[in-house]
């Protein structure tokens, strides 16, 4: 399958800004692999409390490592449900990749996002169809889109409630 066709297919799966039935099925399949630790090291499951349902929501994501930090990036921008859930939960979440890791997700300032976005696109081929900049673009292009793409720094959650 050509890269152009692959990216059109990925955009189709998320054309409303949310996963369609095919994407939901593939996400569930990926979630099982990621949670069990059977996927590459950068792939994880984010577990966060749903802001409306109160149930734990699981989402497969890619952790971008940059400058000694770890980050989660929303390929669908601010309209992704997991972003709203993380914000409503005060950043409290759990990452799973073979083990559970209670974390606090801290939203990164827009000015600090461009190099993390570039790294994310290098690690997450599936995100490339959704981010309006090529992974090889000059830094100025990443600056242009940074405000529209939430990025969260992963920090340990050492609070008693996370244990």
Describe this structure in words.
The chain is an alpha+beta fold and 163 residues long. Helices cover 31% and strands 26% of the residues. The protein has helices at residues 3-13, 21-35, 81-88, 114-123, 139-145; strands at 43-49, 56-66, 69-73, 92-96, 100-107, 151-156. It has a six-stranded antiparallel β-barrel. A hairpin with a 3-residue loop joins strand 4 (92-96) and strand 5 (100-107). Helix 4 packs across helix 5 (139-145). The longest helix is centred in the N-terminal third of the chain and has 15 residues, at 21-35. The chain is globular. The mean pLDDT is 84.
Helix content: 25-40%
Shape: globular
Beta-sheet strand percentage? 25-35%
| Distance from first to last alpha carbon | 45 Å
Total strand segments: 6
Largest sheet: 6 strands, antiparallel, barrel
Secondary-structure-derived class:
alpha+beta
The unreliable regions are none
Calculate the mean pLDDT score and round it.
84
* Biggest sheet, spatial arrangement of strands: 1-2-3-6-5-4
The DSSP helix count reads 5
How large, in whole angstroms, is the Cα Rg?
A: 15 Å
Order of helices and strands: HHEEEHEEHHE
């Amino acid at each position: 399958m050509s890269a152009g066709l692959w990216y059109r297919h990925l955009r189709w799966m998320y054309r409303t800004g949310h996963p369609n039935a095919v994407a939901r099925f593939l996400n569930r399949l990926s979630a099982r692999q990621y949670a069990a630790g059977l996927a590459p090291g950068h792939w994880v499951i984010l577990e966060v409390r749903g802001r409306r349902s109160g149930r734990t929501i699981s989402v497969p994501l890619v952790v971008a490592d940059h400058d000694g930090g770890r980050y989660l990036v929303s390929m669908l921008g601010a309209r992704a449900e997991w972003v709203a859930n993380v914000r409503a939960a005060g950043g409290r979440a759990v990452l799973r990749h073979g083990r559970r890791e209670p974390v606090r997700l801290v939203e990164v300032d827009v000015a600090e996002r461009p190099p993390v976005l570039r790294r994310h696109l290098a690690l997450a081929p599936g995100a490339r169809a959704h981010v309006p900049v090529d992974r090889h673009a000059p830094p100025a292009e990443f600056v242009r889109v940074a405000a529209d793409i939430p990025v969260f720094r992963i920090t340990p959650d050492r609070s008693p409630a996370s244990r």
